[in-house]
Amino acid sequence: MPKTNQSKILIIYTGGTIGMITDVETGSLKPFDFNQITEEVPELKKVPYHLETLSFDEPIDSSNVTPVEWIKVANLIEENYKIYDGFVVLHGSDTMAYSASALSFMLRHLNKPVIFTGSQLPIGVIRTDGKENLITAIEIAGAKLSGKPIVPEVCVYFEYKLYRGNRTTKLNAEHFEAFESFDYPILANAGIKIDYNLNKILGHRDQPLQIYRNFNTNVAVLTLFPGVTQEFVRHFFNTPNLQGVVIQTFGSGNALSKQWFLDELLRAVRKNIILFNVTQCKRGEVNQGRYETSEALDRIGVVGAKDMTLEAAITKMMVVLGELTEPEEIKAALVRSFCGEIKSTIVSNS
């Protein structure tokens, strides 16, 4: 589909609902050859960009995605970075927020759009949301202003809205409006035209792209709830090789103030397990020390994640633990904004 003197976009198909069609013999859904995408979406022939596609040899359900697949996507982007102006990653919606967060931390100094999208209904279904999601994601990936990409960051596009990838959470399993960015404004809204929120989009980077591939998956998520027992918490922190824990606390970062709970946290810290505090609330941020029930967490050495999502917190922890070994360096990196994932006036270039 060559279009001369236009943006070149690479579509990377990893798997997911968007790549399914109905088998005419059985009536069941099956994957199709994504190299034949224009047969399913003939509207792509009218897109004024040069489009090419790459597909995983074995497309994967997003529930089975691991850092191995994140590295595959990052490698494809790196290998083709100088050739293309933007990238569209087609991915199952269930773990898209995790993958978009992970890629945002892996692709340091990114200066081109990487737009994740997918669908709630297969592209072969007549009411699919996949066609609009795909076409608009491509348009955004190729959009330029004064010769530069408008959105040089990892994003999620779904149902007329463009979100910063590491600020998204899947909110709905049944409606087309599947995602939300609770604590950061949308980057663009697609109506009759695409309105970009330019002052909320990351600026351009001057450094060359760097890929960070070292993931430490010796991490876990501890969700607090009324009635959680000391026995459970103790067994949790005795998980072999555990190095990092995201603790989902109440409200603005509040946790049990019972001595047994604080003692278990202190034991974990003394074993150099990094504790990262995110709120269970969909909106708002962790503010350790605001109440007595979180003040003790500060004293113990728990790191407050501010307004970071769970998806961003766990993937960032994997990346940081894969890079650094000293506890204080790890804690400092976790609260430093790499690419707009956390409330900060400064975005690190490291």
Describe the structure.
The chain has 350 residues and is α/β, with parallel strands linked by helices. The protein is built from 9 helices and 20 strands. It is globular and about 65 Å long. The two termini are 38 Å apart.
Q: How many whole angstroms does the radius of gyration measure?
A: 21 Å
Strand content: 15-25%
Shape: globular
Q: Could you give the order of the helices and strands?
A: EEEHEHEHEEHEEEEEEEEEEHEHEHEHH
Helix percent reads 25-40%
According to DSSP, the number of beta strands is: 20
Strand order of the largest sheet: 4-1-5-7-10-11-14-15
Keyphrases for this structure?
globular; 20 strands; alpha/beta; 350 residues; eight-stranded mixed β-sheet; four-stranded parallel β-sheet
Task: Note the topology.
Elements: E1 8-13, E2 20-22, E3 29-31, H1 37-40, E4 50-55, H2 67-79, E5 86-90, H3 96-106, E6 107-108, E7 114-117, H4 130-142, E8 144-145, E9 148-149, E10 154-158, E11 161-164, E12 169-170, E13 179-180, E14 188-190, E15 194-196, E16 210-211, E17 219-223, H5 230-237, E18 244-249, H6 259-270, E19 274-279, H7 292-300, E20 303-304, H8 310-323, H9 327-334
Parallel strand pairs: 1-4, 1-5, 5-7, 7-10, 17-18, 18-19, 19-20
Antiparallel strand pairs: 2-3, 6-16, 8-9, 10-11, 11-14, 12-13, 14-15
Helix pairs in contact: 2-3, 3-8, 5-6
